[in-house]
Amino acid sequence: MRRRALITGLAGLLLAAAPALAQQPVTVFAAASLTDALRDLGALWAARGNPAPRFSFAASSALARQIEQGAPADLFMSADEAWADYLQERRLLVEATRSSPIGNALVLVTPADAPRAVTLARGTDLLALLGPGRRIATGDPAHVPVGRYAQAALAWMGQWQAITPRLARADNVRAALLLVERGEVPFGIVYATDAAASPGVRVAGTFPAESHEAITYPFALTRRAEGNAQARALLAFLAGEEAAPTWRRFGFTRPQ
What we know:
By secondary structure, the protein is an alpha/beta fold. The chain has two domains: 136 residues, D-Maltodextrin-Binding Protein, domain 2, CATH 3.40.190.10; 101 residues, Periplasmic binding protein-like II (D-Maltodextrin-Binding Protein, domain 2, 3-Layer(aba) Sandwich). Helix content is 41%, strand content 20%. The protein is built from eleven helices and ten strands. The strands form two sheets. A five-stranded mixed sheet has the order 2-1-3-10-4. Strand 1, helix 2 and strand 2 form a beta-alpha-beta unit. Helix 3 runs parallel beside helix 4. The longest helix is centred in the N-terminal third of the chain and has 21 residues. The radius of gyration is 22 Å and the shape is elongated. This is Molybdate transport system substrate-binding protein. GO terms for molecular function: metal ion binding; molybdate ion binding; tungstate binding.
């Protein structure tokens, strides 16, 4: 009798806990450039009666390596395809859930109090525009997606070798943007959406689309969340038509 009562009691506790477990917030690891739009979308998701998502924003490379080391992420939202490929090759993403619903552009920015217009074309001498001893900020090309795009664009212009020693290599795109906002560097290479979100910078020019690989953002469910219905629902929302107006409002585009 006592054993039956114990089993009945444990079953009751599990049933009582089930709704709470089903409503656990989803943990989203997302590229730093998605910060503002995702905060708005997270609030919209919560306003519909869902648990507010927990966001961790950083460079896609840092987040991917954290997931590889066992960090409890449910969704991964990268600023390039390469870091999603990295996790997919290690079977840490649910491949069938992966899509790339938004894109971006690459721009050259200046501090708001020192605006300039720069034509970004093959042969443009950025080194001369920098001036003696000055640097240009972007993400570290060794691992940060915006830095990789910047490297490709500078190589297309014929400027990579000249600019390399003058790079201020930031840990993520928002850190690069901050260097420009503070006037610590005269130029930065960031995403168009980050420039639009900052009153502290002005766009000096937009890099031609052909100067770098298309900037797309893959979203996917992590393997640990494969059976998590709440995570699947959030992913469908973020990649779907309901979220599209918010992405557009923050300047993100639909990939071609």
